[in-house]
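Note to self: user wants both folds in one dump. Writing first protein now.
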Amino acid sequence: MGALLIVLLIVLIVFGLGFVLHALWWIAVVLFVLWLLGFLIRRPSSGSGSGPGAGGGRGRWYRW
């Protein structure tokens, strides 16, 4: 009886970890696509950078 409970607990832990990993992969893919879109949309334009950290006209879409 005790061994059955241990096996069931292990199965639940492995299933839960697999589900979490699968969800984290999808979250990572969505964040990567959003980052890529933001990077492609804000291409450097004319070359007039304003504000702190404007690297020679390279338009940054992030603050850090």
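First done. Writing the second protein, which came from a different request thread.
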Amino acid sequence: MTKNITIKSAKPCYDHIGGKLGEMLLKMFIDEDWLQKTDPTDKHFFITEKGQTEFTKLGLDLSKITS
């Protein structure tokens, strides 16, 4: 028996996740206070203390982030 599976788009964009999945993940990380900006006009985010805890729980090695 074959299951009907709806395929959702998750595409790579250079060295990160782009597309709708990337947008949804970013929104969740901001909403859950895992990521913040120092200045709302800046395009860069920083990982909050909560984010460091939660990303580590997911098994991510944050020491590999260089910038």
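Dump finished. Worth passing along: Helices lie at 19-31, 49-57.
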